[in-house]
């Protein structure tokens, strides 16, 4: 007779493993497909389907073989299949990464490999679903207390799930990586199985002793090299799985140009790599891309004197490209840079020269972090991207109201917004939302990209303000500033505010952007040039 303590311990570990595997699966494919809500929804849906199937199969299995030995063997095989997921997924995700390359989407391959990855974790998750009903069947010794036993089993399993929810993202993945996180949960579950088998008979445990050895060997041998290859024309300098992102730093190879950046330029890429989040070249300050345009933002106000620009905030600091340019143009002005991911900040300091003494780095969520800063900013720059998504809470009337309260009297806000080649509905919705707070909103379509920068001013302004301020620049103004203001004036775009207004109550950001993605997949538009 096996003890209830051991059974409940197995239920706790199984619950922990279930959620741990679910969180790890999202990170496993997040490096290829990103971490948008639609990816999360797909993973959660599949997990629930597989668990449902497991509950049904587990209940029938337990009724046919209500003995501890089959249960602990089930536990052992569940652990092994869970641990093998990253081993088998490795070639699949690398193939998916190739199909999802920055400049060449192979939709057919992406669908086939995506379905393969979805089926890959069907076996371990379904087997995990079998465990709780099996434990209930073994724990019930008296039908008069069957309800109590079932409640205890599911309570213990749910407590394990709580631990499995937080442990991967907060501790395990940043410390040991996604693949070994699978291995960690699998080995704990396997230890519980072997302990139960040993309690029944040492011979049973010995018959399964090869499992942890095989799992460790396969993980050690197969999980080598980078999580995914560097884009064509670049060399991988650094990669890290943080609590929030898969971070990749690459350098453009000699004789190559990538994302319109010359050889020797370092690029910060996150997750699926469908966008460049920061660039750095020790000899070239000008990027010819979205980051430069943030220099133009203050010049939409009336009568701007460059000497008076002395304080800015950046939401979405990334590796510090905007902060470096502002420091180079205006000197050591006060810059508060908000970045939620400390792993990105680490990469910025190591590879992107983000060591300016005038930069105050705030590790926090953009909206919350801004709310706790002193304010009086000449510019609040918002460049917070999970390409092509902007976090919805940074797009609402309430948020832009909070931003305005942090601006100096002549301060402006500029936000980077992605769009499709012929679909501006998201730009128009953000503009309409900003117009609820700011009397004037201007748009700059960044050349050679699908980025539009929207500028909100606190007093009524026109495009002439930008032109007059450029003409009034002092003779010693930085060349990058002169070039950027000229390009910004040439790149002004008309705004057609939509009837959609984003609020904290309703902000269908991902719905709009998912439509743009669908057009991209169908070949009617292109999102691959989004920067930010």
Taking pLDDT < 50 over at least 5 consecutive residues as the criterion, the unreliable ranges are 102-106
Number of DSSP strand runs: 14
- Helix count? 18
Tell me, briefly, the overall form.
Answer: elongated
- The total tally of domains equals 3
CATH superfamily of the largest domain: Vaccinia Virus protein VP39
Proportion of beta-strand residues:
5-15%
**CATH fold type of the largest domain:** Rossmann fold
The first-level CATH class name of the largest domain? Alpha Beta
Q: Which value, in Å, is the CA radius of gyration?
A: 27 Å
- Rounded mean pLDDT is 87
* Amount of helix: 40-55%
What structural category arises from helix and sheet content? alpha/beta
* Major sheet: arrangement of strands: 9-8-7-10-11-13-12-14
Identify the CATH architecture of the largest domain.
Answer: 3-Layer(aba) Sandwich
Termini Cα gap: 61 Å
């Amino acid at each position: 007779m096996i003890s209830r303590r051991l059974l409940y311990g197995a239920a706790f570990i199984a619950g922990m493993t279930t959620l741990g595997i679910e969180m790890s699966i999202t990170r496993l494919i997040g490096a290829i497909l990103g971490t948008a809500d639609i990816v999360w929804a797909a993973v959660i849906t599949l997990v629930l389907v597989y668990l449902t199937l497991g509950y049904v199969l587990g209940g029938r299995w337990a009724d046919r073989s209500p003995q501890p030995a089959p249960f602990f063997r089930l536990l052992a095989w569940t652990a092994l299949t869970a641990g093998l997921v990253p081993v088998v997924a490795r070639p699949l995700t690398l193939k998916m990464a190739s199909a999802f390359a920055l400049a060449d989407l192979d939709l057919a391959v992406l669908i086939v490999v995506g379905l393969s990855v979805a089926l890959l974790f069907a076996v371990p998750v379904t087997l995990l679903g079998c465990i709780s009903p099996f434990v209930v069947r073994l724990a019930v010794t008296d039908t008069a207390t069957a309800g109590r036993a079932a409640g205890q089993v599911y309570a213990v399993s749910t407590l394990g799930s709580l631990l499995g929810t937080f442990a991967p993202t907060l501790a395990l993945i940043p410390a040991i990586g996604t693949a070994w996180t699978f291995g960690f949960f699998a080995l704990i579950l396997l230890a519980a199985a072997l302990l139960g088998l040993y309690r029944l008979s040492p011979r049973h445990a010995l018959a399964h002793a090869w499992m942890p050895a095989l799992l460790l060997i396969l993980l050690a041998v197969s999980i080598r090299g980078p999580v995914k290859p560097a884009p064509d024309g670049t060399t991988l300098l650094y990669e890290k799985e943080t609590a929030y992102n898969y971070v990749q730093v690459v350098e453009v190879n000699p004789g190559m140009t990538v994302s319109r950046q010359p050889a020797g330029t370092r690029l910060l890429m996150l997750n699926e790599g469908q966008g460049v989040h920061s660039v750095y070249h020790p000899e070239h300050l000008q990027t010819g891309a979205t980051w430069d345009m943030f220099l133009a933002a203050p010049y939409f106000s009336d009568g701007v004197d460059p000497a008076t620009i002395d304080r800015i905030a950046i939401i979405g600091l990334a590796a510090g490209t905007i902060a470096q340019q502002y420091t180079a143009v205006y000197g050591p002005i006060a810059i508060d840079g908000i970045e939620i991911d400390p792993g990105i900040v680490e990469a910025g300091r190591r590879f992107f020269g983000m060591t300016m003494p005038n930069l105050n780095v705030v590790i926090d969520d953009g909206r919350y972090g801004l709310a706790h800063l002193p304010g009086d900013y000449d510019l609040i720059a918002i460049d917070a991207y999970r390409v092509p998504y902007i976090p919805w809470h940074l797009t609402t009337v309430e948020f832009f109201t909070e931003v305005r309260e942090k601006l100096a009297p002549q301060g402006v806000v500029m936000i980077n917004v992605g769009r499709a080649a012929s679909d501006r509905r998201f730009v128009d919705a953000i503009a309409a939302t900003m117009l609820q707070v700011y009397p004037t909103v201007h748009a700059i379509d960044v050349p050679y990209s699908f980025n539009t920068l929207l500028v909100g001013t606190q007093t009524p302004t026109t495009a002439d303000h930008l032109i007059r301020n450029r003409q009034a620049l002092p003779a010693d103004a930085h060349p990058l500033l002169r070039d950027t203001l000229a390009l910004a004036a040439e790149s002004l775009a008309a705004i057609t505010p939509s009837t959609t207004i984003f609020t904290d109550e309703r902000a269908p950001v991902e719905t709009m952007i998912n439509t743009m993605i669908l057009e991209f997949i169908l070949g009617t538009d292109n999102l691959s040039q989004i920067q930010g």
